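It is worth pausing here to work through a concrete case rather than discussing structure prediction in the abstract. The textbook approach is simple: state the sequence, then state the predicted structure, then interpret. We follow exactly that order.
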Amino acid sequence: MRDDSRQSESEPRRVNPLDAAGLLIRGLAMGTADIIPGVSGGTIALVSGIYERFILALRSLSLSFLAPLARGNVRQASRELFRIHWEVLIPLGLGILIAIVTMSRVIPPLMEKHPGAMYAFFFGLILASSWVPFARMKRRRAEHYLALIVAAGAAFWFVGIQPQKLQLRIARAPEGAVAAAYSGKIRHHTDVAAIQNMVGELPAIAGGYSVVLFDPKGEIHGGVEAGAAGVARVDIVHDEDAFTAALVSQPTVILAEQRASLGWIFACGVIAISAMILPGLSGAFLMLFLGQYHAMLSAIKGVVDHLIVFMGREPDPLIVAAGESAMGDFLFVGVFQIGVLVGLVLFSRVVGWLLEHRHDVTMAALTGMMLGALRQPASVVLTEGGRATSSGSYWLVVGVVALVGGAIVIGLTIADTRLRAADVLPADDAAS
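Step two, the predicted structure:
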């Protein structure tokens, strides 16, 4: 088998086109997982056989090239740059970025429309994945099982924490406003109550404000009675054009998700990426808990829309309705990404050290975290099962998709093992 680690670190590391394509595909899967509350991109990395290699590549990130560059020693700076595992980081990072930008518009609506089936799929995927780190343990002693149980309990507790409810801010408040509108997704009747309470804090006007809510799928079933202080009536609009027309027909206060300060969103990036690296712990769920998940998704959508407008296309009316400037969206997402990079560099070193010096106990803990994290998809599946009109067909569907999720993991594991045994893909650098 090849030993790529023998290559001089002062030379550019060789690029295997097949390996690069595989890393890009894994990055797409990891990025998709990272925007799903309850699923971790680290799980995908572990299942697809690149987890330890991924951590080693992150550990190679360093700013050590800056010192010789500042002294004018370009050759030494180049040597330091070549020590970074770009052949892993570039295709993997590109795949993650593409997935986050594109799937932020696809996955959340699917999860809202078919939550039971989607989370059943993730349940099967995570359950089957939990065997991967367990199988990589060289020894299994009492302390390893203890680490597994403690990690499972911690993950079970963590995913049971209730995330913050919808937090709102005033994005735009024109003079003489008689209405208030919220263009974001209504996910629970408590969101409507939060909107009404926010309207109650606006300057009082005679007769109260009319509240306009956008509900394209007709999912608001309760909690919309006009009764909150300052609310005259609640209008639920299902058509995008009608919602846009309602905004321009009268002076309207625009409500949007509350965004954290730039300092806090930087900290959120550091914290969230730490969870994303660990299989079983979802960075998206942690962002929900920190109260910034929906704000970040709306900011990402805003960035994409501003880029579309820059290329000469019409803007999304709903993004315009949110009232956020291009600078605000780019700054919010950019500061978060800086936090993500800092978290990657710092936390990857911690995990890398653990894999190098405490490999078996680390693998046991990763197994436990994945098993404990099953509480999140299981709770959604059970809740949706209680609401299903036909419980028999519901449980048949979720059972089948859970098996499909498990089968995909098993297939990926077998394929990855055979490709590495055939020397088609490089072995884990961490294992060499």
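Step three, interpretation. The CA atoms of residues 388 and 394 lie 7 Å apart. The first strand starts at residue 168 and ends at 172.
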